[in-house]
Amino acid sequence: MIASNSTSHQIDLFNPTDAHLSLRESVSGFAEKEMDEQAKEHDEHETFNTGLFKKLGAELGIFGITVPEKDGGHGLDAVAAVIIHEEMSRFDPGFTLSYLAHEVLFVNNFYHSSNADQRKRYLDKVISAEWIGGMGMTEPGAGTDVLGMTTHAVKKGDRYVINGVKQYITNGSIGQVFLLYTKLDKNAKKMTSFVIESSYKGFSVGKKEEKMGMRSSPTTQLVFEDMEVPVENLLGDENSAITHMMRNLEIERVTLAAQSIGIARRCIDIMCDYSVRHREAFGKKLIEFGQIQRLISESYADYSAARALVYQVASGLSPEVRNSLGAASAKLVATQMAERVSRNAIQVLGGYGYCREYPVERLHRDAILLSIGGGTNEAMQKNIASDLKKMWGG
């Protein structure tokens, strides 16, 4: 297995404190024991493992990782979030994506956008995993162009009445609470966010998507038809949600990048195990052939470089410190790397890699989503160029 800092007991870039190292060891052990074997079944049947999700709270206790301890969380940072997503994605990236939607897209975002009363009403439920959370931003006609959204809210007395449709919502069919982005005016260039419950009248779940990968994570439409939301569920001020969204996008992007790191690490482990221990050709171990050496060595080097970038960026992120350039760069590099490495793993294993006996074909399918979600890689390229232009006075 690739050397992990979970076994070296070193405090370094990947485990900057004893708390981070302990977290990595706990999550790594849990993921290998509880997530590996169930992943294939839930991928094949496109089902979500609700029982396992509850175990993340009851046994592992990794919800509210970035919420301060005074409010019931762990008070840790973006590096801790990256550690969790890396370790879990080695075994089931799809399930980990649902964890990300709950923990990063809802819990982290909600905490830093909410007031004391809202936290009192919702935090305990999502940190305990009594309720599953998600976030509604993308629409059928508005993905990367988020300001093109048409879901709108109209204030009527002590309620906001919301109409619209959200598309590709992770945890849409299993969630009880969502952070929802809307407009107060369809033509406005500003957004307003709310916390909503699936029990609200006018809330419904639309079609479930049949996906290429990440199949153990449910993805659906959310439909709002004159859905009434209490005014006390407004997050922050009206027309202030872009600030919340951009702040949260950065930790979302580094955790998606961390999923790519986990996928690549597992693929390299499988390549090495297969080519060193299990496969020979013409009387030699497979790893002794130059073509195979190239695939494995380039995979390891690319993985190592991407991993260092992801952790370096994560180490500087906080709710008070922004780094859009770093977050976009980390996501762009790591997601492209994971697609290459998982494809290399299929090639090294040959027919076995293409079949479902080994998990590399599933990991490759899962990896492809990461270059789309959280802002496409094309959007990352645009954002990087825009930030560099500003830095150079353009």
UniProtKB/TrEMBL annotation:
Every copy of the Acyl-CoA dehydrogenase/oxidase N-terminal domain together lies at: 17-130
The Acyl-CoA oxidase/dehydrogenase middle domain covers which part of the protein?
135-227
- Per its Swiss-Prot or TrEMBL entry, what cofactor is needed? FAD
Please give the superkingdom of this protein's source: Bacteria
Entry similarity comment: Belongs to the acyl-CoA dehydrogenase family.
Keywords (alphabetical) are: FAD, Flavoprotein, Oxidoreductase
Tagged with keyword Flavoprotein = yes
Instruction: Quote the gene name from the UniProt entry.
Output: ivd
**The protein's name in its UniProt record:** Isovaleryl-CoA dehydrogenase
Q: In its keyword annotation, does this UniProt entry include Oxidoreductase?
A: yes
Chain ranges of the Acyl-CoA dehydrogenase/oxidase C-terminal domain: 244-386
